[in-house]
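Blackboard transcription, Thursday session:
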Amino acid sequence: MREYSLIQLEQLALEYRERVIHLAQEHAFGVHLGGSLSLAEIFISLYFHIARVDPANPSWLERDRIVLSKGHGNVGLLTVLAMRGFFPTERFKSFNQLGSYLSMHADAHVPGVEHSAGSLGHGLSVSIGMALAARLDRQPWQIYCILGDGESMEGSVWEALMSAGHFRLDNLTALIDRNNLSQESRTQQAMDLEPLAAKGQAFNWQVHDVNGHSLSELIAAFVAPHPAKPKLIIAHTRKARGVPSHEDQIKSHFAHLTPEQADAALAVISRERQQLSLEPS
Amino acid sequence: MTNLGQSVYYGKSSREVYGMALLELAASDERIVALTADVPDSVRFTKFRELWPERFFDFGIAEQNMMSAAAGLARSGKLPYVSVYAIFATLRAIEQARTDIAYPNLPVKIIVTHSGISLGPGGPTHHCIEDLAIYRSIANMTVAVPADGVETAEIVRLSHSLSGPLYVRLSREAEPAVYQREGVFSFGKSRQLRLGADLTIIACGAPVGRALEAAESLSSQGIQAGVIDMATIKPIDSQAILEAARLTRRILTVEEHTIVGGLGSAVAEILAESGSAARLTRLGIPDEFTLAAPYASLVAHYGLDERGIENAAKKALQERIGD
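(Written on the board underneath:)
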């Protein structure tokens, strides 16, 4: 796999955000904007640096599995898969159309998508099954499961957290996209999840608390060894990060961007891109 | 006296046979894994766990997690057999079964025990009279109910080659023996066990054996009742149903399940859409919550014993058939 420098990864994260913003502008029906943008650096670090995947052979047996459990981040997942070459970007023309598997929620008919998600609280359990299979077959591949913080209100998530600790799954990493917002509430208000890190530790996970928009922090957490324990990364993020009209707001969950809103968001990216070009590579 | 060709599973309950037949399969295919939720002995996984501890997974009392994990194992090349009480596979973890297993059409076999009212004194919290209705409404699912131990062995063996998901409903209690020998079972094909010109009893599970006894008793009273073992609820053998309707014009379905949505409903759908002028009587649990009592008392209470089936058949013969 091609090696990317940190700056190149930053550039890819900007491209990812740009693509998601365009999709939110193009689709009058709306897209899951906020939760796709909180995943920008998480997806870029996984698909372009951490995980061993092969776009030419999506079902390669020894690939690492990336399971998006918060299926509402699908616009982000499809974006990073297209960027990574799993399917041509033109296929987005069929988004939400009859006969296409590119739609609101993650669908495993799409090359590179490991699990059909959208109903919350399933993906970590599916990942546990994958991790048990890998261990049984003495396969080296890793499983990375991405959950939402709102999703973590589901009881099945805690069944899964408990069992992964019980089974000592050292080939499983779960990441919670901690953007503090669910569909219609601040998570604090809907259901207090804290103290998340202490809960993870109490369930026998190795826990990392990171800035989910920092590629270097994410990468450090992803590569940290975790013998005899599953790893939980709590990635602190902001929903719809970089979209001034929607950032950290409840309405960002599912949104259509007007041309003005999109332009303002693209201007933010353009400024960030300029700053990046000034940094020594 | 030995009976040549008699199955080693003859006279054994579906639950006992499941545990034994799975061992045969698992010995021949190491992809087979067994999953349960704190009830390994109840579902007869004891020996499996002893022989292949690394292929056995107990998820504790957490059926939802277990069901989705089965999907993850299947996605990674394993052939999971998931076994718990029927009620928890159906009403606790149904969304996981539907979305994670049936939607991607994964080869997960959900083989449940303690179905229907077979955990008699357990009462409505442990009875499961809705599973056939629920599982048969899920696309990609095959749904089967063996009549006895021998048929269970056939189904378990055949389950191995089924590429999609399967739900099999087993009883906690021993069923009356129906089959002596193992034959050729195929999903979607029923078996006519007895011919009769006056009416046809279509049953699944433990009621099949009781229907045969009822038919015997009816015969001594001059009533000729045919009996069909409809072991596959989905896909249902519509050809056999229509043939029975044509020949006897009266059909009695018998199941240890609510009359809403199970075998009787599946038969009704076929008959109604065929335009056939046949009279259907559905015998099962009425649309009400069950009582807690010893299994045999409940079976008698709901008229699902030989006497009840016999009476239902006689009553059905009184009913008028419309033009």
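Lecturer's comment: The first strand of chain B starts at residue 32 and ends at 36.
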